[in-house]
Write a structure and sequence with these properties.
This protein has 191 residues and is mainly alpha-helical. It has a domain of 120 residues. The chain has 6 helices and 2 strands; from the N terminus they run αββααααα. It has a two-stranded antiparallel ribbon. A hairpin with a 5-residue loop joins strand 1 and strand 2. The termini are far apart.
């Protein structure tokens, strides 16, 4: 079997074409992979910012003072209506970013919010001294608030273990969103 010049040219052109195709495919795969990594970095930044807001809640809930009657009270309940309102704003900011945190952590924040609204904020009579009532209710529910803080903090530590697993977070978020949309459609059909 003799190799002619035409065979050599055909082999050279076909190998060059194959190398070009492989190079283009490799570059496409690398760019796609790089894009996905950049996307995950941006998602991680958003998640970290959301978790900073959760940490701010925990920090506020961690501070207690001893009252003259020997009881303890969360500091944010001892500093008046404005500070209490600021705490609700901090809580609201975390709720606004709850899409970036785990569902479990989000539920802990929502439970805390509902408790504060129902058991403290809605129990205060606007016609009486707000700060005195807030102090009394904060003292009454000090240990309950400690439990909320502890639950939230434990969930935060669990989340930190998997915070970097962006693919799992994205898949879990998409599945839960699809489930919510399905439930909404079902409830509309039932009406």
């Amino acid at each position: 079997m003799d190799i002619t010049i035409n065979d050599i040219i055909a082999i050279t052109l076909s190998s060059s074409l194959l190398a070009a195709v492989l190079t283009v495919a490799g570059n496409f795969w690398l760019q796609r992979s790089s894009f996905k990594q950049e996307y995950y970095k941006k998602l991680l930044d958003k998640r970290l910012n959301a978790y900073k807001k959760v940490e701010a809640i925990i920090t506020i809930l961690r501070a207690y003072v001893h009252l003259e009657n020997g009881k303890i009270c969360p500091t944010f309940c001892t500093q008046g209506q404005a500070v209490f309102g600021n705490f609700f704003e901090t809580l609201g900011n975390a709720i606004d970013d709850s899409v970036w945190i785990s569902q479990e952590t989000s539920m802990e924040i929502m439970k805390l919010n509902v408790f504060l609204l129902n058991e403290i904020n809605n129990q205060i009579d606007e016609n009486k001294n707000f700060d005195a009532q807030l102090l009394a209710l904060g003292s009454e529910y000090a240990y309950v608030l400690k439990d909320y803080r502890s639950s939230l903090e434990n969930q935060l530590y669990k989340d930190f273990k998997s915070l970097h697993k962006m693919k799992r977070f994205v898949n879990k978020t998409v599945k839960s969103s699809a489930g919510l949309q399905l439930k909404k459609k079902e409830s509309r059909l039932q009406k």
